[in-house]
Write a structure and sequence with these properties.
The chain is mostly helical. The chain folds into three domains: 32 residues; 70 residues; 75 residues, no CATH class.
């Protein structure tokens, strides 16, 4: 019997776990984009800041109301302000961080996701909730996420149905809709 086999079972399990963790870390490092440095850190923070400011302005336009009678823009405004504050903190304190990644072709997927989400907002008042939400799910799952057509169709239909039942039926939120 080898010395390794004589150790108690928990020690062998921790060895296996340590090996798996090391292998996973190596694989992650192999697939990770190259480091971007401070310029990328600042650039991505400025994008987040612009998104937060734009969101706050748009949410304010919907009306904030009060805490007792919140307007349509109150909670989106609060979230946008949090994004702005965190972006400003990251802009001041995060310039010395080294965990940013260079923008690569896959970075464009985030932009495509943002554009399709804005498209949902534009189409929602025109043709209702169902079709834009279904299109958004299909684009995100199939083209951005690489899911199979079968899982894309099933997950998209279940997701849109769940949101329809939750927001339109359960919470009675007056979203424009077809049915």
């Amino acid at each position: 019997m080898s010395e390794r086999d004589e150790r108690p079972a928990p020690a062998r399990r921790s060895d296996i776990l340590a090996e798996l963790e090391a292998e996973t870390a190596r694989e992650r490092e192999e697939h990770r984009p190259p480091a971007g440095g401070p310029a990328y850190q600042v650039a991505s923070t400025l994008v987040a800041l612009a998104v937060g400011v734009t969101g706050a302005v748009l949410a304010y336009g919907y009306g904030l109301g009060t805490l007792r009678r919140p307007g349509a823009g109150l909670w989106p405004f609060v979230i946008a302000v949090v994004v702005v504050i965190l972006s400003l903190l990251l802009l001041v304190l995060g310039r010395h961080l080294d965990d940013s990644e260079k923008f690569t072709r896959s970075s464009l997927l985030v932009l495509v996701g943002l554009v399709t989400f804005v498209g949902l907002g534009v189409l929602l008042p025109v043709i209702g909730f169902e079709i834009p939400a279904l299109l958004l799910c299909v684009i995100w799952l199939r083209f951005l996420g690489g899911e199979t057509w079968r899982s894309t169709i099933v997950i998209s239909l279940v997701t849109v149905t769940a949101f329809y039942l939750l927001f339109l039926v359960g919470l009675r939120i007056p979203l424009p809709h077809l049915f």
